[in-house]
Design brief:
The complex is a heterodimer of chains A (458) and B (121).
Chain A lengths: L9 H12 L2 H13 L5 H25 L5 H10 L1 H33 L6 H18 L5 H26 L17 H10 L20 H28 L2 H4 L15 H9 L4 H36 L18 H21 L4 H27 L14 H17 L5 H31 L6
Helix pairs in contact in A: 1-7, 1-9, 1-12, 2-3, 2-8, 2-9, 3-8, 3-9, 3-14, 4-5, 4-14, 5-6, 5-12, 5-13, 5-14, 5-16, 6-12, 6-13, 7-9, 7-12, 8-15, 11-12, 12-13, 14-15, 14-16
Chain B lengths: L3 H16 L2 H6 L6 E6 L5 E7 L2 E2 L3 E2 L7 E5 L2 H8 L5 H6 L4 E4 L1 H14 L5
Parallel strand pairs in B: 1-5
Antiparallel strand pairs in B: 1-2, 2-3, 2-4, 5-6
Classes of the chains: A mainly alpha (458), B alpha+beta (121).
């Protein structure tokens, strides 16, 4: 293959992967993990989840090396198990992530609602966030790799510095910072916390969509490892620091803080207030900026990637035709982007009306683990059906490691939803409803859409 | 078996179709990519240089650095696509056609086929 003018390197891929996953909702999820674990041991669940994500990344590395396409998981599943499974599962994954963007917007709005008490209400910020993202995607404004590198680096540095500041200032709140089964004696809670921790890494594998923009497939594998490393460092440290600085009951919203505010959807705000007490105003401006950047990069990456995916599905007659409309001047798939923004706003509205923003962390964690499970299954199947295909990267120790991943991720999927807590049940219901809707779409709508297409043959 | 000459002729047909289409010229007037086409079953390669919505004469082989590299499984399929017999979108989505380059450029390339062969849509 001849030279390409513009290619991404591993650092840019890692920054993009971390940028997908850096979301304000992730801090809420980090608190949920801390709540599931005894004492100060939440960091252990984050690290174990990171190790599992590294295993999953080896599967994505092999698959993206075989099929370096932006259609990613859809192609992998289609090649291994056919279109009937690929369409509903990949579409369900997309819509789960987009619905979770509604939760991210809710958290984003909650942060600014408490940072600017005399300012506009929650809905203003939610609509502002989606208006900005819709405009970016409508006009095709591109966040360059260099800007994304700086954004990811800024968020990384801010969270790491704040975490160290908290640990130095407050020490370790609990004596138990090393035994994850100390209080219950059961590993069930630990496994559930590990499964939920997968949310913190949700999206690292989306960088496989960047395969088309790299010259060497190893860049994608190294980029995924870099993204997981960045996210693990940030969230393990933050988990430790959050619990050390602020009582768990305050972080989860079971109790209000001394200022009378419930910080359930914005635990990082009380954390920053406590840690940077003397410099509270400066720190709160920084946390506002951080929340804005985290939400915007996460939203934008989500809408940008999924709108292109939805556009492609529409061109393939697996989604309604209007979703393949391109802007005549900017060449952006604006119909798909605006539709996805509308889905996310609807999700925010439902959350506002019914509550349960914290359920989406479980839905997304479940969808992620489901994709890890499918990726491992695809590797196993394709090693049999396409043994001679060139694989720039191979899962080491196959089939033992791959079979272990299939079993492990299958069990983890169950463990994500094992808790009887209300938000967990709602999270499962959301995921099941989206998968069922996409399965029905695939079975009933797609054949009709395809029937309209004129037969193309020579 | 499709020859290199067939591919060149198909590419010329494609070029004429694009250059004769006022809509493509108008829409893509600010897009100036170099596109390399190649196939997995042969060494046949062509270069399309597009400026101001207008494709310059087709060059054999790879000329210069590309914005997009499009790799077809077979010369037959590349020839069919260039002549409008084959809709490349399903093959791209199933991973059979490999494209290297920026995703926004891939969409623009797809838009060309959508405009010049509306019957495929």
């Amino acid at each position: 293959m001849a030279g390409l003018k513009r290619v991404l390197d591993s650092r840019s891929v890692a920054a993009a992967g971390a940028g997908f996953a850096f979301a304000t909702l992730s801090i809420v999820a980090d608190v949920q993990v801390a709540q599931l674990m005894p004492g100060n041991t939440g960091w252990m669940a984050v690290i174990v989840a990171a190790l599992l994500c590294i295993l999953a990344s080896s599967c994505f590395g092999e698959l993206s090396g075989m099929f370096p396409t932006s259609a990613g998981v859809r192609v992998y599943i289609q090649k291994a198990f056919g279109e009937k499974l690929a369409i509903p599962l990949s579409a369900a994954y997309i819509f789960t992530v987009i619905a979770a963007s509604g939760a991210e917007a809710y958290v984003f709005g909650s942060v600014f609602e408490v940072l600017i008490p005399s300012g506009p209400g929650l809905w203003f910020y939610i609509l502002l966030a989606f208006t900005i993202v819709a405009a970016i995607n409508y006009f095709g404004i591109e966040i360059t790799a260099r800007v994304q590198n700086y954004l990811s680096l800024s968020m990384f540095l801010f969270l790491v510095i704040a975490s160290f500041a908290a640990i130095i200032q407050f020490g370790i709140r609990f004596e138990n910072w090393y035994n994850p089964v100390a209080e219950t004696g059961s590993v069930g809670g630990f496994i559930a916390a590990v499964a939920l921790s997968v949310f913190l890494f949700a999206g690292f594998e989306w960088v496989t969509a960047l395969s088309e923009e790299t010259r060497d497939q190893q860049v994608i594998s190294r980029g995924m490892l870099g993204a997981i490393g960045i996210l693990c460092t940030v969230y393990a440290l933050l988990n430790f620091a959050l619990v050390s600085a602020v009582p768990k009951e305050v972080l989860t919203g079971e109790q209000v803080w001394t200022d009378g505010v419930n910080y359930a959807a914005r635990p990082h705000v009380v954390f920053i207030k406590v840690v940077f007490g003397a410099y509270e105003l400066t720190a709160l401006i920084a946390v506002g900026l951080l929340s804005f950047l985290a939400s915007m990069t996460s939203f934008n990456a989500g809408i940008l990637t999924t709108s292109r995916f939805l556009y492609a599905m529409s061109r393939d007659k697996t989604m309604p035709k209007y979703l393949s409309k391109l802007h005549p001047e900017y060449f952006t798939p604006y119909a798909a982007a605006l539709t996805l923004c509308a889905v996310a706003v609807t999700s925010s509205f439902l959350m506002f009306a019914l509550g349960g923003f914290d359920s989406f962390t479980y839905s997304v964690a479940g969808a992620e683990v489901m994709m890890y499970f499918m990726a491992a299954l695809c590797v196993l199947k394709l090693r049999k059906t396409m043994p001679d295909m060139v694989r720039p990267f191979r899962v080491p120790g196959n089939p033992v490691t791959t079979v272990t991943m299939v079993v492990g991720f299958g069990l983890m999927f169950v463990m994500v939803f094992m808790s009887p807590a209300q938000e967990v049940k709602v999270g499962l219901a959301i995921l099941v409803a989206i998968i069922a809707a996409m399965a029905l779409h695939s079975a009933l709508i797609v054949p009709r859409l395809r029937a309209k297409k004129r037969h193309q043959s020579r | 078996m499709v020859s290199g000459q067939d591919i060149i002729e198909g590419a010329r047909e494609f070029r004429n179709k694009v250059n004769d289409n006022t809509k493509v010229r108008k829409l893509l007037k600010r897009w100036s990519p170099v596109i390399h086409y190649e196939t997995r079953d042969s060494d046949i390669a062509i270069t399309m240089d597009m400026t101001g919505g207008h494709i310059a004469p087709i060059e054999e082989g790879h000329a210069g650095e590309a914005d997009l590299v499009v790799i077809f499984p077979t010369t037959q399929e590349l020839s069919d696509m260039l002549r409008g017999y084959l809709d490349p979108t399903p093959m791209y989505l199933s991973g059979d056609i490999l494209v290297k380059g920026h995703q926004a450029d891939v969409i623009k390339l797809d838009a060309i086929t959508m405009i010049i062969w509306p019957d495929q849509d």
